Amino acid sequence: MTKYDDLFDETTPTNNVFRDKRALDPLTEPTEILARDTQERTLARILHGVHDNYLPPTVSIYGPPGTGKTITTRRICREFADRTPELAVEYVNLKECRTLFSAANEIHAELTSTKLGTYEGIDGVFTGIWRALEDYPEWTILILDEIDHLRHDANYDPSDFFYRLLRGEGRLARDITLSVWLLSNDLVQTDLDLDSRVTSAMSDEAVYFPPYTHDELDHLLHTRLQNAFTEGALPEDVRTYGVTEAARRWGDARKTLTLFRQAGETANDHGLDTVTQECIEMNLETAEDTAIIEKLHSLPHNHLLVLYLIAITTDDDTATTTSTLTQTLQQFDEETAFGQRRIRSIVTDLETMGFVDTWTESTHTGHTKHITPAINPNLIEDATTRLRQTNDSSGT
């Protein structure tokens, strides 16, 4: 016997409330897409354009995290392609790409199973992309997930990247029919500040995935919760309470699954036969912070920067203003400084997303808008620090 035998004996649940905890894993792909009938029908209508000899150059698929964008889009495109020999679908997640060259190279790797060296440059990568697509069927859909993680880097800007993808000479010379489906939060084009030559090449096709309502979440989670817990371990009133709180706070399926998993683990830790409302409540704050952190990490760079400036220029007694933020930005980051009008627009976005509170005060000289964070400033600073560390490690 060692101390680890004792440790494992002590931590073995006396009354295990779980039947199959894997059912609560957000990464487990469901057998059926639920509560997204409207979005599936819209995507199907767009896909049927293949039979009319047309697919839009771009399709924007957007909405908050955890609302089914990726699984729904990938599933319906895959199912359609299985029934349509003249169509191929490729999926690329760009979340870990810190430069536009690496984003292009990730696409190249998906098409060819190889990545090119930096000496090839972005021109060489796109040449490889077009060569690969020459061997594809008549139509190709390229799904680019986490597209809002792209931003200006030392060598290229997003407009250049998208122009090559949509109107590149290599593509046009080879007569490649490519439809690019962009999965993102709803601020991507605002923050990327794409120029007119790119926006004119993009279509107006857009599919919005809103947060799940209570009934949608309830329907979505019914079977998974039933499979996850032993019979009677999750009372109906506790289940209803958890779903209600999750819908009210997030409308995020991934966060809700995590909440119930953590609540079940809390019940096991306390030797309970059932998950109680207290188990849910003990994990709501942690889940709330986790949800906020995920949203912060999904913010476009400029939005996170302005939110950080709001956090460091305010305290419990003092609000900030767009004028103060403009001055601070110029001192803080001269290379990416932008004007007061742009900051006002970003503040409006942040207020809509619930990250900041604002109010207007009338004075003898006019009106002044005051701004304060609506979330814990420590979470903002932590998110900004992690972003900097990630960028430093990637050399951007």
Strand line-up of the largest beta sheet:
2-3-4-1-5
Give the C-level CATH assignment of the largest domain.
Alpha Beta
Overall shape: it is: globular
What letter string, H or E per element, gives the SSE order? HHEHEHHEHHEHHEHHHHHHHEEH
Find the structural class using helix and strand composition: alpha/beta
Count structural domains.
3
Gyration radius over CA: 24 Å
Percent of residues in helices comes to 40-55%
Distinct helical segment count: 17
Give the second-level CATH assignment, the architecture of the largest domain: 3-Layer(aba) Sandwich
CATH fold-level assignment of the largest domain? Rossmann fold
Can you walk me through this structure?
- The chain is an alpha/beta fold and about 400 residues long.
- It has 3 domains: about 35-210, P-loop containing nucleotide triphosphate hydrolases (Rossmann fold, 3-Layer(aba) Sandwich); about 210-295, Helicase, Ruva Protein, domain 3, CATH 1.10.8.60; about 300-395, Orthogonal Bundle (Arc Repressor Mutant, subunit A), CATH 1.10.10.
- The chain has 17 helices and 7 strands.
- It has helices at about 5-10, 35-45, 70-80, 100-110, 120-135, 160-165, 170-175, 190, 195-200, 215-230, 235-250, 255-270, 275-300, 300-310, 320-330, 340-350, 375-395; strands spanning about 60, 85-95, 140-145, 175-185, 205-210, 355-365, 365-375.
- The chain has a 5-stranded parallel beta sheet, sandwiched between helices. The chain has a two-stranded antiparallel sheet with strand order 6-7.
- β6 and β7 (about 365-375) form a beta hairpin.
- α14 crosses α17.
